[in-house]
Amino acid sequence: MNQPAAPAQIRIDFVSDVSCPWCAIGLNALQQALGKLDGEVHADIHLQPFELNPRLPAGGEDATEHLMRKYGSSAQEVEANREMLRERGNSVGFSFDLERRSRIYNTFDAHRLLHWAELEGRQLALKHALLKAYFTDGEDVGAHATLVRLAGAVGLDPTRAGEVLARNEYAGEVRKQEQYYLERGINSVPATIINDQHLISGGQPVEIFERMLRSFAQA
């Protein structure tokens, strides 16, 4: 009797920002696609840093004003985009409450904590907690108190999390990774990179991720 083929092993680098709504959609869709490929593909996911707004001050900026200025959008266009995000989020099981998300924050410290969380084996859990805290609960994901609480909620040591933040640990490593992807032409996110060779751009639907992941795994 023939034994079933072992799952294809792939590495996925998911380049994203905590304040990127399409990254929340894309990560959920990616993981749902991998669930459909269970037995065919085994993925090792690494979350890589990208900052949409690296120059934001502490306390952030009003979300609507920021989006109108950055993209030249009207208030009506911003609201229409929010409604589209709600629908796409619902399709992959992610809840956007963009009325509560009233401000856009600097996310560099969140990326430092995510770097540490990967070393501790809790990176994906912390990423999901950060996305929910920001887009569903409207929390300040640049505030150290929020970051420490979320770290503790996903099983990380909150005392150590506070030390990482207070001591500016992993700042160099995060900057290096950000520059690495910028130099390779990644200037919008999410960017899903398979085996350091294939790029899937944007928050694609589950079916697109499933089809492309299968083709890359079989290549």
What do these coordinates show?
The chain has a single domain, classed as Glutaredoxin. The protein is built from nine helices and six strands; from the N terminus they run βαββααβαααααββα. Helix 4 runs antiparallel to helix 5, helix 5 packs across helix 6 and helix 6 packs antiparallel against helix 7. Strand 5 and strand 6 form a beta hairpin. 52% of the residues lie in helices and 14% in strands. Strands 2-1-5-6 form a four-stranded mixed β-sheet. A two-stranded antiparallel sheet has the order 3-4. The mean pLDDT is 95. It has 219 residues and is an alpha+beta fold.
In short:
This protein is an alpha+beta fold. It is built from nine helices and six strands. 37% of the residues are buried.
Keywords:
single chain, 219 residues, alpha+beta, Glutaredoxin, four-stranded mixed beta sheet, two-stranded antiparallel sheet
